Fold each of these.
Amino acid sequence: MKLLIANRGEIALRIIRTCRKLGIQTVLAYSDPDRESLPMYYADEKYPLEGASPLETYLNIPKLIRAAKQTGCDAVHPGYGFLAEDAAFVAACEENHLVFIGPSSKALEKLENKLIARATMRAANVPLIPGSEHPVRSEEEAIDIASKIGFPVILKAVYGGGGRGMRIARTLEEVRRFFRVTRLESLSAFGREEVYVEKRLTDPRHVEIQAIADKRGQVISLGERECSIQGRHQKLLQEAPSVAVGDDLRQRLNEAAKRGLAASEYTNAGTVEFLLDSSGKFYFLEVNKRLQVEHLVTELTTGIDLVEEQLKIAPGSGLDISQNEVHTTGWAINCRINAEDPRRGFVPSPGTVVRYQPPAGPSIRVDSALFSGYSVPEQYDSMVAKLASWGRNRAEAIQRMKVALEEIEISGVPTTIPLHHILMSDNRFIQGDFHTNYLNEMLPSMNSYVARLEEFAVVAAAIGKTANPTRFPNQQTMSQGARWRAYARTTLMTHQR
Amino acid sequence: MLRTYRIQVDDRSYVVSVEPVRKDRFRVKLHDKVFEIESVTAEENPYWIVKFGETTVRARTRIMSNDRVDVYLAGLPFTTSLLPVGPKGYAPPAQKGISGEIHALMPGRITSILVKEGDEVQAGGPLLILEAMKMQNEITSPVSGHVKSIRVKEGNIVKKDSILILVE
């Protein structure tokens, strides 16, 4: 197999690592801003996509197919995001005799968009959340449906995924306001503007089943993940297993997930997402028809390399593990670290990482393409690192994560690290008592934590200034004489008793 | 020797006194709190271990200009401006009102402008949509007033901090 990687950043690097282990040749398709990026160091070959915007590069099907053909690839891994769940891309791969590492176009048709997926699941007797069965065409229609099913509602991009293209509306006015924004966001992110309306459950948990299905009809579950810690509809912290799932519920979730995937004639790695209410009832949310950001927690609890399984079964081989051979051990937690500013409502904040130092230690895993001096591009997703820990139990995984969060250094851009610091010491999080809205409830304590950090920052600023009163190392403007005087002054200052 | 600074972060002001204790050790007073600081590197952007009570925070500093020091800690950057304070005390910081100048919080592309010049807007009302890192960010007005001028067009790529709209 020779594999084209149609993605970037940490997931491109993640895939390359498994390929290097298996001796599979890799070709990395890259955009202009990604010319200097870590996966470029490890891919066997590189193919320039020329351009910066996603539409010119990682969303450009003809360019990617050309890249695969010209470099003699026979398979394509889409990673996640971009074209990972794009039926046209899968079809283009199939037409060009390229093995797509993911579901077949037949399975994608049965799950083509959120509305079709709901119909497929309804037929497979998987419980659904109340909502519209057709795309909503106008503000008026959206308002009409929202009034019928009751507030709050979620406006969702029919073709959306990965937490993008979704807005919660609590009033008629908000439905009107967000309808346009959601359509625009959907158009820009997914190339389609259709939106539908779904009921928003009150404070549910988000649990999901990671499954793998081979082309011979075998579907196995690798257990659940708990992804209730969310902000801006994005999973910020994920764990496996879930404190809310006992053996009986786990079995029912596994069965519903397998039933849904079988009905979709699904193949390769996939995740069935559910919302779980406080009474233990669960509802189908969506199928993620790809590898997921949080797949690493499942890898840590099962010991299975999901990318390796994906690559093995994509050409048609059967799974070489059976359901009985899947054993989960201990507990894993993943913190998603985004270049976003928690002080300003988590706005994406691209910029240069002055210094990066990853943590390490027993059962710590970091998936990242960061390095000191890396410039986080503004064109793409804000995720810069995934920091995961494993422990024999949840308490140990939390302890290890706490230490790792203190150790990781990402200097230069604002990140979501403070949020994870807070979570690791938060009583409700430690007790497992939280839901998908919990992060919003926690924001006041995060703000006071950040205010305390600012005191440490001004103290450090005063010291930094005192230690180097006239030295501007980052500007290189000082004359030799001035440097001499600065050195003398610093020495006097710091050596004085 | 004691050095005192007035340090500004956004619109917040702090008075900080630094006292060297011995080589690589300092004591810093911030209002009524005393922090203990240890230096562990001598590289271009030095690294500091800052202790207050039970809490230890590790920080890196970067001197950007005569009066600006950037600090990185716990995954956050802080931009600080420093003024040395003499024995005669310091001038209180100028009161800054909320401005109706709307700046780009991040670099990105203007996908949609929702108002025209002369429109009346309420504080919190939507002005335009700025796309950055795949997200559509609704930019709202910090003040109530009229749209005085719009400095961008739909489709424009804007730099961080550039002025987008003036509301008066």
Amino acid sequence: MKRIISVLMENAPGALSRIVGVFSQRGYNVDSLCVAPTDDPSLSRLTITTHGDDRVIEQITKQVNKLIDVLKVVDLTEGAHIERELMLIKVATRTDDIRAEVKRNSDIFRGRILDVNGSNYTIEITGTSDKLDAFAASMAECAEIIESSRTGVCGLARGERALRP
Amino acid sequence: MKMMSGAAMVVEALKDVGVTHVFGYPGGAVLDIYDALFAQDDVKHVLVRHEQAAAHMADGYARSTGKTGTVLVTSGPGATNTITGIATAYMDSIPMVVLSGQVASSLIGEDAFQETDMVGCSRPIVKHSFLVKRAVDIPEAIAKAFYIANSGRPGPVVVDLPKDIVNVQESHPYVFPESVVMRSYNPTEKGHMKQIKKAVASIMKAERPVMYVGGGAVACEASAKVIELAEKLNTPVTCTLMGLGAFPGTHEQFVGMLGMHGTLEANKTMHNADCIIALGARFDDRVTNNVAKFCPHAEIIHVDIDPASISKTINAHIPIVGSVDKVLDQLFGQLEGQDLSGQKEKLSDWWQQITQWRKRECLKYEQGDTVIKPQKVIEALYKHTNGDAYISSDVGQHQMFAALYYPYKKPRQWINSGGLGTMGFGLPAAMGVQVAHPGATSVVVTGDGSIQMNIQELSTCLQYNLPIKIISLNNRALGMVRQWQDMIYKGRHSHSYMDSMPDFVKLAEAYGHVGIKVERLDELDAAMEKCFSYTDRLVFMDIAVDQNEHVYPMQVKFGAMDDMRLSKTERT
């Protein structure tokens, strides 16, 4: 089962490699990873999507929590939460028909065309990972995908719950 | 405010955290720090012959005192040579701080001479690490390193010091932090009261309880409380390899070590228990055997300071996060309201059963007339040291014999590499013990394989006059490897021979020590007596023992805990 684990940690050199290290040395999966400083620049927030049974996820949260640089760890998938991922995708638009179809599909998925030139469009799209997968599939049907880049999932709990120091 | 160089700050900070001994080896990147060491007498330095031994010495020092062991090495090979020692300490949760030199900040990343990413190399085997970037940060980094190493679940911490920040030419203000506060690190010491109450309820209804005591009880000095609890409840007690001594091996409630080479009665007691009180132990694979068959009737109370150790391999019914010491205090508080007068009677059937298991005498062995059995050597060692010596061990058959045939009376008396199983650990560890306890008897039990993995330290022993006693069980083979080859590989002894054994007596003498060779049973007692009569000399006892002896009991692979071989021909 897919899990989204959010980690609040010191924005210190090496902190990220320690977390990634826990995953590799203990054989846990990393499906995506997203990290950046928070509103408090001394802290970083890292979101990892992974999969495993309850036992594995419990070990992951405990082992990550054990790292000295880590303040808090929460499994967002345990409760109601919001998750978003961003994708930039560049597709070849060689004919008017393809251009029209790409534009139409982007509108349906609420994508934004960020860059246009003679032979391709670059589109920005935000949503859950599933939505991004679906959009990429629709692009592959109507045009040729030149390249794409995804940020990995970031998420917050719904309601009052929050990950604060 | 004191002004000083980065190098002087390193030494000053070590003094301020209370370090009296540093084990190390100089080199280019740390010459400034060595110069600062030269200028003072408070922090004593022990020069090893290989950096791995420096880490093991600091480890032996830490295990025998509870204080943090300190290592100082140079960059590159100096640092990487400590890796095995750091991993050894990490696996056994031993407090250690390794100060490693690093090339100058401006050269980091350029593949400079003797450059290694030490923080990266050591990352999976440290509790934490620091790469110090400014001289003014040195005191705080060192204060934090020592705090982290010896609080919560102890472990090794690396402090990497680039050469430019310890430059003796520059001066910086020295401010040692009055206290260390870290918002991201606050180990839980006290257990949750709700869980303690559940544990008491479980203990009170148990008819077949057992206490399973590990290294965590040693780490937090909880031995007296462990004994008090066992005596209050009248429970049998077993210790892990790391926990030996936390409960006296001579106590009538002790059923022996448990696990792969544990006693039959310890493993039977565990397997048949209805309540397991695990104190600072981690249910590792050398204890549990097949986890699917592990102790089917037991409700498990698991006390550990590391939440990640709880329910990692075996699910705990009543998890309690906290130090054994603090949790036992809380447990005593809750037990006060209970009537414990009936414990003796309630457990009498249980004890009768245990007595039956003990009658199998699983540790008995057949000593012939001439060829010495390794077990006999350990028994003789016990006799000649009155059971009071610090025993450090290497890794292999001799380690198991030393664990099983020398009943440890006190915690920190038994020093061994339990988790990592590091051959070459014993000699330097015993040296660290001797440095920490100059007047005590420090013995290393080793074998002809292990002793050669750090034998160069005989030279260090002479330099610092460390009169340790080396009891080498020489079977002219890698005994434990050979045993497995006998049992699993139909006796094909692939590369477990040592065809070119040195003359250990001459070797000891070449290093300036006393060597004694023992080949026959009738020589053993007199030789031991002679060995321990040298109070101010290192003695190397090269004792020829039976090459074909196996360590028993031994768990049968994939079986339950109590599924054991008792000898080459008997099984449970």
